[in-house]
DNA sequence: GCGACAG
DNA sequence: ATCTTGTCGC
């Protein structure tokens, strides 16, 4: 037996982290839209065949009614393993391909995962937003970095997510009895607007409609039986 | 050195 | 994320 060689991804990990720091400097955390969003999109990525294939799902919804008007699923070979903090590199190709399938360009995109709430401020929502030059919001189901004050049990309770002194997102109890969502700006959106749009797109489930529908589509059980009002 | 660690 | 059935709680 020999000593374990350096992991093949070690070099790339370093390069990827440097690139993240550079890209993060280009992320704009402020609202930049001329008109209120009319088309929303939800993105989610899953893995099949023991991770060998990456699958991205996108759902386009009309902002006013939250009615889904387009759905697409794309698959491609997985190029990178999962490494905490480098998720965007693993998911970005599939996310961009899914976006390309849309017949309309969304005005605002919800991405499953972190936005600013990332060690180098470049979660998948930021990276995707930059790459597509689209306003994006990160909606994660757990914390990668940061801490927040205890949240009340009531739906709607929220607290800033802090990484040291900096606010990187918001912990939001989207539904009573559920663990809070971690909402953070991706690109071209402010903290306030990110939270506002997540709240406006909640429909009694833990996840906001864009992300919830994309999740269902990616996990294939994509029928259309609605639950409680 | 010892954990923590989106999906 | 994914592998997996029933089960406890709002």
UniProtKB/TrEMBL annotation:
Cellular component GO terms, alphabetically? cytoplasm
Q: Which GO terms describe its biological process?
A: DNA repair
List the cofactors. Answer: Mg(2+)
- Give the source species: Vulcaniibacterium thermophilum
Which regions form coiled coils?
none
- Entry protein name: Endonuclease V
Binding, Mg(2+): 44, 112
**What is this protein's function per UniProt?**
DNA repair enzyme involved in the repair of deaminated bases. Selectively cleaves double-stranded DNA at the second phosphodiester bond 3' to a deoxyinosine leaving behind the intact lesion on the nicked DNA.
Q: Keyword set for this entry?
A: Cytoplasm, DNA damage, DNA repair, Endonuclease, Hydrolase, Magnesium, Metal-binding, Nuclease
Return the NCBIfam families for the record: PRK11617.1
Cell compartment(s), UniProt: Cytoplasm
Q: Which Pfam families does the entry link to?
A: Endonuclease_5 (PF04493)
UniProt-recorded Gene Ontology molecular function terms: deoxyribonuclease V activity; magnesium ion binding; RNA endonuclease activity producing 5'-phosphomonoesters, hydrolytic mechanism; single-stranded RNA binding
Q: Which InterPro entries does UniProt cross-reference here?
A: Endonuclease-V
Q: Does the keyword Ribosomal protein apply?
A: no
Tell me the superkingdom of the source.
Answer: Bacteria
The similarity comment for this entry is:
Belongs to the endonuclease V family.
Site location (Interaction with target DNA): 82
């Amino acid at each position: 037996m020999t000593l374990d060689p350096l992991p093949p991804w070690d070099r790339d990990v370093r390069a990827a982290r440097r690139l993240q720091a550079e890209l993060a400097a280009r992320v704009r955390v402020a609202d930049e839209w001329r008109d209120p969003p009319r088309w929303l999109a939800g993105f989610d990525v899953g893995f099949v065949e023991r991770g060998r294939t990456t699958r991205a799902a996108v759902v386009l919804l009309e902002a006013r009614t939250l009615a889904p008007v387009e759905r697409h699923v794309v698959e491609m070979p997985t190029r990178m393993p999962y490494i905490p903090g480098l998720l965007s590199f693993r998911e970005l190709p599939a996310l961009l391909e899914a976006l390309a399938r849309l017949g309309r360009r969304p005005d605002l995109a919800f991405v499953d995962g972190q936005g600013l709430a990332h060690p180098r401020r470049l979660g998948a929502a930021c990276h995707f937003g930059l790459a597509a030059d689209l306003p994006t919001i990160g909606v994660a189901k757990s914390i990668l970095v940061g801490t927040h004050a205890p949240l009340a049990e009531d739906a709607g309770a929220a607290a800033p997510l802090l990484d040291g002194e900096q606010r990187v997102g918001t912990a939001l109890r989207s539904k009573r009895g559920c663990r809070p969502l971690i909402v953070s700006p991706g690109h071209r959106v402010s903290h306030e607007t990110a939270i506002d749009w997540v709240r406006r797109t909640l429909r009694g489930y833990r996840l906001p409609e864009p992300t919830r529908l994309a999740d269902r589509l990616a996990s294939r059980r994509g029928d259309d039986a609605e639950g409680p009002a």
